[in-house]
Amino acid sequence: MWFLITLAFRNLFRNKFRTALSSVVVMVGVAIQIFGWGLVDGGDENVLRAASSTMTADVLIRPSAYPKDNLSWPLAESLVPPPSLLDAAAASGTLAPRLLFNARLVAGTEASRVLVVGYDPELDFKVFPRTHWAIDGTWPAEGQQQVVVGRALARLLDLAVGREIILEARSFQGALNAYTYTVSGVVHTDNSMFDNIGMWMPLALADTLVLTEGRRTHLALDVHDGDVAAVAVALDTAGFDAVTVREETADMLAVGDIRRRAVSFLVLIIMVIAATGIANTVVMAAYERVREVGTLMAFGMPRRGILQLFLIEGAVMGITAGGVGAVLGSAVNLYFSENGIDLSRQVGVAGSSMSMGSVLYTTFAWTPVLASVFFAIAVAVIASIYPARYAAGLVPADAVRAE
Amino acid sequence: MPVICQLKSVRKDYPMGDLTVTALRDVSVEIHAGEFTVFSGPSGSGKSTALNLIGCLDRPSAGSVMLEGRDVATLGDEALGAVRARRIGFIFQSFNLIPVLTAYENVELALRLAGVKDGRDARVKKALNDVGLGEYLDRRPAQLSGGQQQRVAIARALVKQPAIVIADEPTANLDSTNGAAILAIMKEMNTRAGVTFLFSTHDPDVVAQARRIVTLHDGLLVNDTSRPRAS
Asked: What is the pLDDT of residues B133-144, one digit of tens each?
């Protein structure tokens, strides 16, 4: 077998240009597949990270009637969490209560609709450590009328630390309240939605503004031990729904799945083109080497040996081109998994409620790399079947005298 | 000398569309060990077909082909290939060396395909030394002259010590000097080692060297002349 591999390898180098042309298409296909899958997986990770680090933690608990679309934030659906739910959640991890509602931010002559996040200063920092967040200024000091605004929003309204703003919001009862606050910080989170429309204030200030009297819209749970999905099921009690971060982002992940299929389809098209090129290369090799095949047969090489020789030539092309493509695709993938792709122009738009991180880090994993190379080899071998069968079917008496 | 090969009432037909062309008609001939035999005749006389049958490259339409007492006409592709690998050496008009293999590897290929594992290196080197190419082991065919390539082909044919060597117009692509040299090597192998050679040729020099001349015409054996061995 080693002899056949050596022979196949040398045969491929007989017409370097032709072999290279066919191989390039395979290389491109494999590289695109690896990078494309890394990009899509990275997109999924981005969505999950954006949600879990700013909104859901491991498990998000909401009143059952509360909309799940993350487009409207009705105070009317807020509820006072029952002690039984709080105790059950506390037994599984750390729970951060939140009150989210829409308000109107007025800064001088400018105004914008914002999403206010009322947070528990102590618990929220435990559940959302804000490791990758960046803040200019500080988080609101206790007892001060201070708020933090998202970076894109701050840019839109020309807000800086120390600037005074007015926040208008309808209370739970429907009355219109307005208070003056000072911007203590401008924050860049892992989630573009909060950067674009978000404003952060301690729960005490939020309760004062919208008079919710202990009602909450969101409870984010950081699960310490145990299976997150099981915890979510256990906390799914009457009046409240508990979802994991994956369930919460299912729609976005489904989009990722569509993208993954699109990449696979693109790669499939490229591989069909590659298969045609490889088939052409091996067919030409078979036609050009009729006398050589006849000689091998005359000296006793069985038909299956001839078949193997041409299939190995296809496989060697697949392995070589697939290997180079895998190295290229992996290198690009690894580069962007370290340095990320800046999406701030795409997602950092004030007013946008798209929930994604502004930097997308591709994901590198060995499984797609190996799968891509295996796919390339399979395509190359399948493309070589016809020429291999043609060569193996030659009549030795005619083939040895072929011109 | 014992009979190495025998064609018994052999007919070979080739279908050509709706027609059938008969290349050999009821040909019977025996080849003995150590013979230096030429199959001669004009183009289309059937000499290449006869060599194909003796060389187990093809099967007869009727009759039998006996090689070392075994009817090879009834063998399947694989078994026929095994017979070729072990018992028959080929020398072709166009040398038919594998271009991507060195002279050494081309000769070794015959031993590999014959399933020889022991002593391969020594046998390959001896075979190439015997044809005067001991210094050209690592040369590829493109780096050798036509005469040198045909010597490699002779070494390849002989290295496995076959029962018979079939040489199809072995000097046709060589100039007269190289042709004579190649012929001398084969003659010497025949005389010294008793290798059985069977030629198809138009070359009068080859015919002149043959001790037996089998003449074919229109697929019929029309003459079979033997000359006494020169002392």
From this structure: 888 899 999 999
